[in-house]
Each structure stands twice: as C-alpha cells, then as structure tokens.
Amino acid sequence: MNNFIYHFIKGHILFILAGLCLLSSLSLAFTPAVAATSTPEIIKAEKYMQSMGTVKARFLQTTSSGPQLTGTFYLHRPGRLRFEYDPPLKDYIVADGTFIYFYDGDINEQRNALIGQTLADFILRPNISLTDEYINVERIMHVEDMLQITLLQTDDPHSGSITLGFEKEPFQLKKWRVVDAMGEITEIELFDIQTDMPLPRSLFTFIAPKTKGFNQ
Hints:
By secondary structure, the chain is mostly beta strands. It contains three helices and twelve strands, in the order αβαββββββαβββββ. The protein is globular and about 50 Å long.
C-alpha cells in the first residue's frame, strides 16, 4: 500500500501534523501560533474552501520515502472525492458521501472507513472551519505567491500536522503537505485545475473490480 493511502487510513485523528521545510533563500513573512483566532488569511481560506463545489485536477504526489506518482483528482463537495493513479498503478481512493474506500491494485484488496474517521473529512464536511475547538492554526506563512496555513490537532499536537498551500492569484487550493509523527512527508500538488463542471456520480461509487481473488 502506498504512503498516501497509508496517511489517509491513519486519519482517525482529525489532523496529522504538517511541517514546512523552507529554504533560507525564500522570501517569507511569518505569523506565529494563531490558536482558534480568525485572521484575514483564515477567513479567506475558509470562504474559498466552503465555496468549493466540483473540482477536477491533475496531481503530483511526492513522499519522503518513495517515488513521485501522478494521477487525477476529483472532488464533489460535500462528501465525495476520488484519487485515481495513472497506469501502471491500479490504486484509487473514492469517497461516496458516507464511506471512503482504498483500493490497492497490487494485492487486489479494498479497505474502507467512515469518512468522519479519516483525514478526508476535513475537506468533505459541509461546514469547514479552521478555528474550531479541534484545530490550532500553528502558523501562517506568505511564501512568494503562496499562502501556507499549518494546522495541528488541538488535543494531540505532536501526532502530526497538515499544511494547506493556496495560490494567491487566482486564489485557490494548490497543494497540501502532511507530516506524521514519524516524520514521513506526503505532499500533493494540483495542476490544470478545473472547477464547477458536472461530474458523473459513478466517479464517486466504489465498484469492486471483476478480477479473480478480489478481497473485501
């Protein structure tokens, strides 16, 4: 099972700690811990994410202990998403509004969990808040043309974090980075982003592959 799916399955904690490794040559402004406090950046990010409807984009997945992978990302808020990896991988992730399914093509096996028990719940829930009781805004950074917001789980800040990266113009979610408690990093960057288009419901339905030896 690849590291991205591994991070999602581990997502029974609301957020896993995201760290940022920035080269000293980058020009940035830094705002320290903003626990449960709204700022103009937080308000803008919440408003944008709340308004997200349908999205289709290409993605590049980079991990600290594996090769780069590519694929297509689909989102239909609230409740539904799909990550589909490019061949030769047969892996995919699909959320249908209630469950999120993880299909591992190497071993022809699927696992599933309630969306609310995974990291995916953050982007799929009807109401998105970056300052509720479960979340601390650990830092806000302006890095050239990007706004980066790092979030911690309030009751277990050492378990991990997630950093959301927003392109400033046009303002849109461009990437996110997850660092778990062991220091494993997974980053997803989106390209060729399209929004507000019809997406067939079949994209967000798990259909068991018709292959010999399929394991539920």
